[in-house]
Amino acid sequence: NLEGLYDQYALRLTGQKLTTPAGQQAVAQLNDIGTQLARSLEQDIRGELRQQSTANGLVALPIMDAQLARLPKMQKWSPETHDRLAAELHALRDRTRTRITAQQNQLARFTEDELGQRVAVLDDLALLTGDERYRRESVDVVTTLRRKAEEALKGEQYGEARRALLALQQVSPEDRSLN
């Protein structure tokens, strides 16, 4: 295990004269091992972020936090790689937070008639925040749309029923019962 080898090397270097040729060679080897470890972790983190990113390149905050939590050990292996990757991850997290704030603001501006658009924003917020409250609210809005459509049909308010069904179709295009 490369990480164990790094720790052993670092422990052996403790208390040694690092100015001697042997000491300098040992430090160089330790740095090489650290660079390999940092590179491997960086590739793993980038792969995870690529796999978990949304269509617009953002990553959910819980995933970002989990990846950021992996960085401290990289600091001792390769401070340069750590600093560069940490800056990138913080910038990505900031972009995600900016999107969340914009979506929350948009959500607050929706009227009662904009339930279809509300669902899309709620789904986006649920994805980006990992907060199930948004998912539950989205389900509640879809239920409300279904109820409005049914009530409008029963009351022969076909224009209202059509609007509700179109909104449902927009948020649930895979639902064949709406076609």
Give a quick set of tags describing it.
179 residues; mainly alpha
β-sheet strand percentage: under 5%
Category from helices, strands and their pairing: mainly alpha
Biggest sheet, in brief? Answer: none
Order of H and E elements: HHHHHHHH
Low-confidence stretches: none
Please compute the radius of gyration using only Cα atoms: 26 Å
Helix content: over 70%
Report the average pLDDT across residues.
Answer: 88
Please work out how many helical segments DSSP would assign. 8
Report the end-to-end length measured between terminal Cα atoms.
57 Å
The rough form would be described as rod-shaped
Q: How is this fold's topology laid out?
A:
Elements: H1 2-13, H2 21-52, H3 61-68, H4 72-77, H5 79-109, H6 115-129, H7 132-154, H8 158-171
Helix pairs in contact: 1-2, 3-5, 5-6, 6-7, 6-8, 7-8
Describe the structure in your own words.
Helix content is 79%, strand content 0%. The protein has 8 helices and no strands. The longest helix is centred in the first third of the chain and has 32 residues, at 21-52. It is rod-shaped, with a radius of gyration of 26 Å. The termini are far apart. The relative contact order is 0.07. The model has no long low-confidence stretch (mean pLDDT 88).
Question: In a nutshell, what does this entry contain?
Answer:
The protein has helices at residues 2-13, 21-52, 61-68, 72-77, 79-109, 115-129, 132-154, 158-171.
